[in-house]
Amino acid sequence: MRDLIDELAGIAPGSRLDGLRALRPDVRSSLAGYEAAIFEGESGLTSTERHAVAQHVAELNAEAALAAHHQARAGDSPRLPVLRDYATLITRTPDLATPGAIETLMQAGLAPRDVVMLGQLIAHLNMQARLLAGLRLLENA
Description:
Elements: H1 4-9, H2 16-22, H3 25-40, H4 47-60, H5 64-71, H6 80-92, H7 99-107, H8 112-139
Helix pairs in contact: 3-8, 4-5, 4-6, 4-8, 6-8
């Protein structure tokens, strides 16, 4: 089973990296499940908001292919600046996050479950960025 990471990393079927990833099929399967839950699951965040935040987090991590994947699905909304600011805070300086940051999200119209979804989205994108970077290192080793 191939996944988004295989596509974005340009991992060819049968390659050395494909073989390494095949050692852990549960990881590929889990990543596909997370992707579906985050981008297709029920939420007060629109699909286009989720992809816009994902694009932003990918850009913060300098992952051009991941950013382009989400850019094609991203859209604008009045609360997007607040969502992006929170994504930047959690990605770059999570130790500076305060209850006030969550209150700002609530004032922008997010319900508690939407705040959780946003946090999961940000964590998932940061993990994908690290996985892509790690695979590039392995490819060049």
